[in-house]
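Checklist before submission:
- one chain only
- standard amino acids only
- sequence pasted in full

Submission:
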Amino acid sequence: MKILNNFDTELKDHEYEDAVKTFWKSNVILIQRCFAYWVIKWIIPLVLYGVLSTILLALLYSLIFTEFPNLFRFFIIIWIIGIVWFLYRILMKYIDYTMDFTIVTPAEILTHKQFWIRSSDYKNFPSKKIRSVSSAREWFLWNIFWYGHILFLTDWSVTDEQNWRHWPGKILLTYVHRPNENRKRIMNLCIWDENTHYFKVEETQEK
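Returned file contents:
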């Protein structure tokens, strides 16, 4: 489904297929949010919100409905507004879970972030610009669900009329399944060149 060129539910599949056609499947890494994101950001909040809302409405009904029915109706309106807002937030998390992705190839790294229907953020940078790749799995839930973060330090440049300089850029991927394994896979697609102090892109041989 494609809406206003900003919301394409098939973008991830198209980009992955194009990368596979160019670099072969063994040289393409698709990184997306893991199932833990779905559990932590969608299932658990939905269950908690349902339970707490039911308990709160039951208490309000037993305490004020008989004496202050208008006040109870006011709380019902607030509750309905809260449901709409909560469902909107849940839908946003679902879009993040299904549509955000990163594709790593020997030549470049592509990242896509979808912001509802209104806009999307799409970036790509050459693999040779990578300075380092690190992974982290720190908290208790991270170790239970085998997920964590991957951080790219990249080499960016800025040029204006007066100066020219380099500085490190950061790209953070969150809720990545088996982040350390994915970090190793990413590093295996690049070769460290000690003479130039940059990652040298591995040439893909045609089969």
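Reviewer check: Residues 191 and 200 are 5 Å apart (CA to CA).
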